[in-house]
Amino acid sequence: MPRNDNPLIVQSDRTLLLDVHAPRAEECRNALIPFAELERSPEHLHTYRLTPLSLWNAESAGFSTEDAVAVLNEFSRYDVPDSVVAWVKETGLRFGKLRMVPAPKNADGEEYVYLVCASALVFKEVSANAVLKKNLIPCEYVSCEEDVVEVSEDEKQFCFMLRLVDRGTVKQNLLSAMWPVKDDVPLKDGEPLSFSLRNKTLSGADFKVRDYQKNAACALVGNKGAGTGFGTIVLPCGAGKTIVGMEIMFLLQTSTLIVTTNISAVHQWIDELLDKTTLTREQIAEYTGESKTLCPVTVATYQILTWRPDKEGPYPHFALFRERAWGLVIYDEVHMLPAPVFRVVSELQTVRRVGLTATLVREDGCEGHVFSLVGPKRFDVPWKELEHSGWIASAECVEVRLDLPPQKEVEYAVAGVREKHRIASENPLKKDVASLLVNQFKKDKILIIGQYINQLNEIAEMLGVPIITGKTPTPVRDELYKKFRENELRVLVVSKVANFAIDLPDASMAIQVSGTFGSRQEEAQRLGRILRPKERTSRFFTLITRGTVEEDFGANRQKFLAEQGYSYRIIRYQDESSIREVYNGIEQQN
Question: Any alpha helices (H) in 320-440, and if so which ranges?
Answer without folding.
Answer: 339-347, 367-369, 383-388, 406-414, 417-425, 429-440
